[in-house]
Amino acid sequence: MILSPSMLSSDFANMETELKALEAAGLKWVHLDVMDGLFVPNITFGPPIIKAMRAKSGLFFDCHLMINDPGRYIGDFVDAGADLICVHAEACTHLERVCAQIAEAGAKPAVALNPHTPPEAIRYLLPQLFMVLVMSVNPGFGGQKFIPFCLDKVRDLKSMITAAGADTLIQIDGGVTLDNARELTEAGVDVLVSGSAFFKYPPYGERHKAFQDACE
Ligand code: DX5
Ligand code: ZN
């Protein structure tokens, strides 16, 4: 299990300290939520902030773009230091092209699916996807409640990936807690994103371990 803490719930005035605390706590990934106020109702940050974070951190930058028509900005996010770029299926008219663009630019391509979007949307893309993100809340804000049907969706997606002989990772994002972490990883989740259930409970090393223990 990989835990990818979502910086959306971190202290934005002290991002350098937060990033360093994550590394010191043994985390390898960090989840960066980019929002444009159009695809989702909220606005966060973009490439310049990610670039500033990159200068302070060696973590794997897992960038979740909640923006319309993300193909316009792939080069900017890769130049800023994104290791993985995850775009929403619902935000791309030509999703295959955007995924190819991400790979060509040198980052790992991933696709996010809103809660209501069936896994079928990415079936034929699986061989070229490093990861699929299953949104388990409607994107836009931290601290929301997990939508229960997303567990079945993870199981469906896992069967689809196995049947395709692909090695695509499954990530879940939204309402992940110590209480549901285990059933999620048992259902096939490889990467857990956690914002509020992680950052609200320092020290991060202990919280990281609590998530790992919960999944055993
Ligand atoms: C929500 C974001 C999430 C958010 C999760 O749209 O994509 O990454 O930070 O926050 P929690 O873990 O609090 O639900
Ligand atoms: Zn996210």
TrEMBL record:
Binds 1 divalent metal cation per subunit. CDD domains: RPE. Pathway: Carbohydrate degradation. InterPro entries: Aldolase_TIM, Ribul_P_3_epim, Ribul_P_3_epim-like, RibuloseP-bd_barrel. Its EC number is 5.1.3.1. Keywords: Carbohydrate metabolism, Isomerase, Metal-binding. Catalyzes the reversible epimerization of D-ribulose 5-phosphate to D-xylulose 5-phosphate. This is Ribulose-phosphate 3-epimerase. It comes from Pseudodesulfovibrio karagichevae. The lineage of its organism: Bacteria, Pseudomonadati, Thermodesulfobacteriota, Desulfovibrionia, Desulfovibrionales.
